[in-house]
């Protein structure tokens, strides 16, 4: 029998086919732009509204003096340069440790994470320097780390325990100074970056302490108390050099 569909039937069929085809087409998903917490571009970083630093302040034996804050604000390029040095040294120290102490899975894993994070921060600070038109300049190391490391015990695992405790104080002091600078620095972009760093830096010192305790058969509280006094003295006493971890300007 011949097909006798009229024009109206054809239009209806085409319309129905279109509806059926459209119903099989998935709507494109809407992908929201996500802020990468580990982005090299610091303008894309999410800054925490507030970070509780009470544990950091309680851990440290002394607070940064106003004299240091004033000197740092007056010498921001130097502080940025030394900050870059500190991030690079932290990654380098962790890399050395990861080769020397291969027996501990927890230590290896945490050091690997730390290396990755410190190098990211180093790259971010380099970006800040570049954006500010600040050329890289050689800056000698201050007395801070050496002043603690000279008290490190010379036998294992005590030496490693001391290194980790010292690392805890360095991280805690870094966090405390980022917070102090973020409150008063007139460069809002830099202040925002320092506030961003508070989240990671505020937990690093506890990671170091946990690793130190895991390697020691004895309680580490006595060694922590010892280095707390040493670190506080280095921060509070007069210092002839201005650095990110230097003492009170002489």
Automatic annotation (TrEMBL):
Residues 1-20 have a biased composition (Basic and acidic residues). SUPFAM superfamilies: Ferritin-like. This is tRNA-(Ms[2]io[6]A)-hydroxylase. InterPro entries: Ferritin-like, Ferritin-like_SF, tRNA-Hydrxlase_MiaE. It comes from the Bacteria. One of its GO terms (molecular function) is tRNA 2-(methylsulfanyl)-N(6)-isopentenyladenosine(37) hydroxylase activity. Residues 1-28 are annotated as: Disordered. GO terms for biological process: tRNA modification. Gene3D superfamilies: 1.20.1260.10.
């Amino acid at each position: 029998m011949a097909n006798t569909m009229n024009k109206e039937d054809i239009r209806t069929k085409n319309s129905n086919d279109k509806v059926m085809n459209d119903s099989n087409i998935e709507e494109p998903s809407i992908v929201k732009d996500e802020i990468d917490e580990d982005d090299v571009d610091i303008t894309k970083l999410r800054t925490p509204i507030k970070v509780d630093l009470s544990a950091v302040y309680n851990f440290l034996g002394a607070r940064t003096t106003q004299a240091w804050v004033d000197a740092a604000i007056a010498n921001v390029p130097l502080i940025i340069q030394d900050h870059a040095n500190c991030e690079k040294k932290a990654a380098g120290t962790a890399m050395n440790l990861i080769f020397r102490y291969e027996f501990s899975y927890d230590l290896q894993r945490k050091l690997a994470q730390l290396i990755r994070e410190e190098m990211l921060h180093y790259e971010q600070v380099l970006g800040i320097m570049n954006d500010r038109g600040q050329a890289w300049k050689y800056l000698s190391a201050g007395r801070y780390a050496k002043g603690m490391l000279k008290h490190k015990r010379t036998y294992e695992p005590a030496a490693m325990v001391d290194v980790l405790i010292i690392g805890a104080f360095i991280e805690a002091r870094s966090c405390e100074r980022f917070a102090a600078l973020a409150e008063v620095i007139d460069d809002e972009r830099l202040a925002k970056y320092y506030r961003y760093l508070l989240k990671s830096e505020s937990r690093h010192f506890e990671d170091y302490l946990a690793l130190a305790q895991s390697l020691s058969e004895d309680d580490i509280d006595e060694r922590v108390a010892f280095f707390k006094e040493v670190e506080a003295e280095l921060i509070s006493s007069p210092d002839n050099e201005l650095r990110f971890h230097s003492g009170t300007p002489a």
